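Folds abound. A case:
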Amino acid sequence: MSFTEQLTSLFIREDAIPEEYRLDGEVHQREYLCNGEMRQWAGPFQEVYSPVCIPGADGLQRKLIGTYPICTDKEAMEALDAATLAYNNGRGEWPTMSVADRIKCVENFTFKMMEQRIKVIKLIMWEIGKSWADSTKEFDRTVEYINLTIDALKDIDRESSRFQIEQGIVAQARRSPLGVVLCMGPFNYPLNETFTTLIPALIMGNTVLFKPPKHGTLLHYPLLEAFRTSFPKGVVNSIYGRGANTVPGLMQSGKVNVLTLIGSSKVANELKKMHPKVNRLRAVLSLDAKNVAIVTKDADLKLAVGEIVLGALTFNGQRCTALKIIFVHKSVADEFNALLSAEVAKLKIGMPWEKGVNITPLPEPHKPDYIKECIDNAIANGGKVINENGGATSASIVFPAIVYPVNEKMKLYREEQFGPIIPVVPFESIEEPIQYQINSVHGQQVSIFSNDPKEISDLIDPFVNLVSRVNINAQCQRGPDVFPFTGRKDSAEGTLSVVDALRAFSIRSLVATKLNDTNKGLVNEIVNNHDSNFLSTKYIF
């Protein structure tokens, strides 16, 4: 049996799939959340096919797992109107609610979210082909993120509960919301990365328009009722349909105050230009990345290979933080490539429910063709696939390819492949990877592998001004979530971490007055009578 035939054999009959991992029937969504109502949809719908294929008379076919509404710009504008009304120029119930009461609403949502845990995990696995273990981790990490966000907001509010007196002025400064937030998440972490913007935007008092990603849409359906019953009407509104049809009108209205997008810099630029008052639009963006690993002649090659395989191929390399190009010193390149090939060969390929699986089906239907195109282009320009079976494909499964030597003529040198390919570039002078990063349009992270303190020091200082995070003898990654997560150039705008996200979706406002007996009396009466949710010394424990 050829290796391609072995890959094909990984796809099994539907009745052979372990029962505990099967969906409880297809999920046909015919409603969406708008203005506190689950509105019925009788129009066209989008079929959702899993990257998991089922063998049949016509060969391997992606499994239909459900459908969702293809709404129009009309429904999108109705959602915008609902969010705008709920915010009501900052006078709505939600933006004027006390921080303690907003926290209670988010805690209530989290409790209801936990009730849907298994259903959402299954949909993550089936919709995007993420392993059961990683789908579970994504859900649980999202809940942990929500709890950390609540704790961080309590800290911020406690710090803001006191008055400041300077130069005869007494003032209290707190963080207040910005308005209507348009939130769009990515397919690779459709729950976690969406919620790392949606939750802080909500808890700070903003109202939200939430558009699920193209791949990873159905998994949000079980949570819509939790949103509906946990927040005042119009605070959370879902938008379904083609982005090209639904989003332009929202931006052109000028009523969107914050754009948050995890995706393409090209799309972000186009959307920002649509807004009639760009100076009023705040953008919180996590975008493209082409993270570099640098393996020096003094690196621990075994350690470097282990971290690079994790960094380059976790979830098939479909992560913005993935290592997407590897620079290796020529003197150790042969040994490194041999170790890397051996380590990749150990990866388990299979269906996402299999225990210990590393390589799973790809959610994007055209991704296998794109990977082949990149490999063919590399070969045409002097590269080779150096690992056995690298690039072998069957339907939605592609075995990782290590391509060497990669040069500036190849697509893999510049393009973010977002898939299971590891491009390896040999270098002689350390200035080569530095110049690569200088010339790159991306600037998220770098990984440096070396045991020479002086060599590491000489790389840290230039790279901290070229990227946002320098990893020493470790893969690139987002977490822990309390660390700042951002990027330079086309890779990001704004900073996301538990605390930074709360700041990103709010602005400092203050109430101030001259310090005299009359004003002291006024302020004391307001505070003692608890007449204002903003001007308050209440302390949240």
